[in-house]
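Long-time lurker, first post. I've been practising inverse folding by hand and with some scripts of my own, and I keep getting stuck on stretches where the structure tokens seem ambiguous. Below is the full token string for one chain I'm working on. Before anyone asks, I'm not after the true native sequence, just a reasonable design that respects the backbone. If someone could post their per-position residues I'd love to compare against what I wrote down in my notebook.
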């Protein structure tokens, strides 16, 4: 009898504690406070964040491929240096985001395995080919531009590590957008052939860029819950509209036309109207039937396999030197490690 009473009391306490945790979580989100890794959070919130951050991280590293395609053929040393820096930035973005996802108890290895097995997605935009040099400019202007529009509100996301990673990423994306714009401007004001190349790239990248904001609000599976949790701050359609309104005057300055005959200013709404997006194309690309899906994922798998020795060497190096940093003489140890790395890099 006593045992039963005690059991019930314990159960009641556990229930009260779980409710208290949940109430504290809801209150923190409502007050615009950040949720940190050690805080209690609903399992569905954790799963939703892992899904979104993984997809974001995967997009950063898969997104390196279409542009890296042009590094060896950049038209000048200056353009080559800029493009290399940009592609490296994207690798860095992937790193920040995988690290941020790790704070939720999921490893980078696990996420990469899921990407390679086709069990997690990356942005559909990177399944389109880069046919000419002007595509590099169009990607910077439109793809990085759409990414910024999507990502600036994520700097205020309720999960602390994600929000903080986004602050630095957005600063770098901003540079990417400007370099793309400047490169397209140079082409647009160049020879007639260069102008035509710029226009052709914009024609091909405009619609896929609008698809980057995701399906329309009434078809977006995760949107409502993400907005309640303040992971997401604006709806897909709201952000898409904002992007269109930003791009129209920029296209005018570029001297390029956006390939949409229905695009026009709506005085009443104070926004631009634009034509219908081909959602069948979007769904096909998501299903794996885009022009470059297979190429992107097989190249990623190959890069991962060929990089195995680098991961092994880095792990062995870290294990070999792990005791030294903890001896208290971290200043000297750090400098010594840095010298060793430098020596190995030049060897
Ligand atoms: Fe990026
Ligand atoms: Fe970028």
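-- Answer (accepted) --
I ran through it position by position. Result:
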């Amino acid at each position: 009898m006593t045992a039963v009473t005690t059991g019930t009391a314990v159960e009641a306490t556990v229930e009260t504690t779980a409710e208290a945790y949940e109430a504290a979580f809801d209150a923190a989100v409502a007050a615009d406070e950040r949720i940190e890794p050690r805080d209690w959070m609903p399992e569905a919130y954790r799963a939703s964040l892992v899904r979104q951050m993984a997809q974001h991280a995967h997009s950063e590293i898969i997104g390196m491929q279409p542009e890296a395609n042009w590094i060896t053929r950049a038209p000048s040393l200056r353009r080559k240096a800029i493009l290399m820096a940009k592609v490296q930035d994207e690798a860095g973005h992937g790193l920040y985001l995988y690290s941020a996802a790790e704070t939720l108890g999921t490893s980078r290895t696990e996420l990469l395995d899921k990407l390679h097995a086709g069990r997690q997605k990356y942005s559909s935009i990177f399944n389109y080919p880069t046919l000419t040099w002007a595509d590099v400019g169009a990607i910077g202007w439109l793809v990085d531009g759409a990414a910024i529009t999507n990502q600036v509100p994520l700097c205020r996301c309720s999960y602390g590590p994600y929000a903080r990673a986004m602050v630095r990423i957005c600063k770098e994306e901003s540079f990417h957008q400007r370099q793309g714009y400047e490169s397209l401007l140079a082409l647009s004001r160049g020879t007639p052939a260069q102008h035509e190349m710029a226009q052709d790239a914009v024609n091909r990248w405009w619609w896929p860029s609008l698809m980057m904001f995701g399906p329309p609000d009434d078809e977006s599976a995760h949107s409502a819950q993400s907005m309640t949790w303040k992971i997401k701050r604006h709806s897909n359609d709201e952000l898409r509209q904002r992007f269109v309104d930003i791009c129209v005057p920029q296209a005018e300055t570029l001297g390029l036309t956006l390939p949409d005959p229905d695009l026009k200013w709506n005085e009443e709404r104070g926004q631009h109207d634009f034509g219908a997006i081909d959602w069948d194309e979007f769904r096909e690309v998501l299903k794996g039937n885009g022009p470059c899906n297979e190429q992107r994922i097989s190249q990623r798998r190959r890069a991962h396999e060929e990089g195995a020795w680098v991961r092994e060497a880095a792990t062995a190096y870290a294990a070999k030197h792990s005791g030294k940093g903890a001896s208290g003489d971290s200043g000297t140890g750090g400098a010594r490690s840095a010298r060793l790395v430098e020596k190995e890099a030049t060897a």
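A couple of notes from the structure itself: The chain has 14 helices and two strands. The first helix runs from residue 2 to 30. Happy to go over any region you disagree with.
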